[in-house]
Design brief:
By secondary structure, this protein is mainly β.
Length: 235
Amino acid sequence: MIITESGSELRGEINYRNWDINPTQIQFQKASGEILTYSKEEIKHFEVIREDGIAECFRRFVLAVDHSPVKLGELSKTSEPLFETDTVLLMELVRGPYSLYYLKDSRSVVHFFLQKGDDLPKELVYKKYSPNEDNDLAVSEIYRRTLIEMLYDCPAVRRKIETMSYNMKAMLRLMENYYELCEPSAPSYLYRPEKKKWKFYLTGGLSQNRISFSGRNPDQLDEWSFDGSTGWIPE
């Protein structure tokens, strides 16, 4: 289902790609079989139903996104984010009085955004920077302060904010705790990661089998290595 910029609701089939990077356009097949391409500027909202029956929902926003350099040798000297206005399709993680969104940009940098009511979502900034000429690495965890300020009505989660990691699992757990402890109404939508399917394979001889994969689960290793002739690969 797509809600277009003009407010029209279109029902048909979306070419779901299990996007690692948030999409900037989608292909949509009408009931007649005609295939149309919609850019992010033409979409207000769209959702797809995965094979496991869980919906993935995306909403378009024009907002400030941190574009600070992330490559070693190019890191900025300041801890302050470098905001630029951008048009993005954010994936919904939580929908309710406080909504949480996820963005993985074209540089493979992960961003999270928190929205109160109908306000514009605010980025929960996690920034790496190099404060001196020795190229030392430092981290600015502005997201903790932003969460404390926005969830000020729930002191029960403050300790969790102060100790949490910056990944999808931790963000989802925090918002679940917020709704359990401090918000009488349950969220109307809660994202659930798709479970991986695995199959076993064997190869002859001694070798190092290496698995490289990508996805939205930040707790996954980017690469697994095994010495020997056995391994696992996603199906």
